Amino acid sequence: MKQQKQYMTNQAGAPVGDNQNSITAGSRGPTLIQDVHLLEKLAHFNRERIPERVVHAKGAGAHGYFEVTNDVTAYTKAAFLSEVGKRTPMFARFSTVAGEKGSADSVRDPRGFALKFYTEEGNYDLVGNNTPVFFVRDAIKFPDFIHTQKRNPATNLKDPNAVWDFFSLSPESLHQVTILHSDRGIPATFRHMNGYGSHTFKWTNAQGESFWVKYHFKTEQGIKNMDEATGQKLAGENPDHATEDLYVSIDNGDFPTWKLYVQIMPLEDADTYRFDPFDVTKVWSHKDYPLVEVGRMVLDRNPDNYFAEVEQAAFSPGTLVPGIDVSPDKMLQGRLFAYSDAHRYRVGANHEMLPINRPRADVEVRNYQRDGAMRFDQNGGGSVNYEPNSFNGPQATPENKQAAYPVSGIADSVAYDHHDHFTQAGDLYRLMPEDEKTRLIDNIVGSMKGVASDEIKLRQIEHFYKADPEYGQRVADGLGLSVPANA
Ligand code: HEM
């Protein structure tokens, strides 16, 4: 079809005379600085990159919606969950954790499962993973942990010594280390994995009653994983296979879906449960707290532009709506600072104004924040920019305060009081069929073989042994070592 030609402009909108030949002094002469179009083009190109995410740099995203399928108003007053059948637009981003922006999708690594719900009460973000637990349980340990997953400062290589040194000195990681080296450690695609909020959150209903909750998104495509050899082969052949799979599936009208369930714990149970329910290295027993259905997530639209919608997307565990709140989980509390801080550095002070991050059109943003780099709306115009004021400026609504709850204690740097890192890891091992146990051991041995120090290997074997003597023995056998006498 013949289309009318569009004329090219510079960034200021003026027509460009030549985009193929720079202005030179004569046909063979040097380039003239007066070619301002050339200068603009080269300078803008130099600034095309923004910092990649410090973790979860490689990812893929898609738009969709969430539909409520079960009445949960007894537990939360969140408006987007208020009615069966209600639909809320959303955006999801899936990712690997440790690799750079160009790294392979098929590595053994947790997968990020970040969701943004564009609700009528503003945005709600749930920034989870494909695993229900995490490696550490205090935010103060996170930067050190991530350093061990990234590159060695001298060699710039991935470093199994650092990985297993940290794990062996952080026994709370054992549960997640077992999941990571199990079949679920390499999901076949982003569509074939579950998502978890991992932390405990708090829901509050219209009567002011609160509950502790954990989120479980179950894939309706079924769980599918990839073995180590296939993952490594694919990392060379098609490092973007999961990115491609998500895009192509949606493009073909094969929309991936997940069912959301929550576990609900009465507030007072937290004091008497057999371990700290805010410890993100533990799962709650489904017998104690069975799954309650909430709704269904459908991803049905690809981004039009990767940078605008996926790279600039900014998810934060602190982006909450009335009826959904945080718990005292020490990791979660640290994350409340880390994400928005990362966004201000990576995208800018006004990142929430970008189309992918701003609330939906029927939600107006009203506050006294003004100015900052790249403030590209009306910036509040002439309206009052301070509070209290006599000019009918926006006011806080006490009914939307975070639900109050009692705390007490001595302010101190205190370790968790629960030291059983072994029962849940051992239960998971014992649950695995024999062939998966063998793959688990092979994956662990394959990774630990790269560790130079026997001291580190033996310290880690001790943890496996404490989870299950057979688990420890088989890793020791695989590494040609004996289980330490004190295990
Ligand atoms: C991304 C910090 C724990 C899931 C990030 C980013 C930071 C960060 C700084 C990059 C954000 C950006 O540039 O947009 C932390 C800290 C943690 C922590 C300090 C512990 C204290 C966790 C846990 C989970 C998780 C426990 C899952 C349960 C994610 C996901 C992303 C992410 C999914 C990618 C979000 C996206 O797709 O844009 N994290 N993280 N993180 N984190 Fe964490």
Q: Class by helix and strand content?
A: alpha+beta
Radius of gyration from the alpha-carbon trace, in angstroms: 26 Å
- Separation of termini? 75 Å
Quaternary form: single chain
Query: Class of the domain at 59-140 and 187-360 in CATH?
Result: Mainly Beta
Element pattern in H and E? HEEEEHHHEEEHHEHEHEHHHHH
Sheet with most strands: 10 strands, antiparallel
Bound ligands, named by name, code or SMILES: protoporphyrin IX containing FE
CATH architecture of the domain at 59-140 and 187-360: Beta Barrel
**CATH homology superfamily of the domain at 59-140 and 187-360:** Catalase core domain
Give the CATH topology of the domain at 59-140 and 187-360.
Answer: Catalase HpII,  Chain A, domain 1
Task: Please state roughly what percent of the residues sit in beta strands, choosing from under 5%, 5-15%, 15-25%, 25-35%, 35-45% or over 45%.
Answer: 15-25%
> What is the general shape?
globular
Number of strands: 10
Number of helices: 13
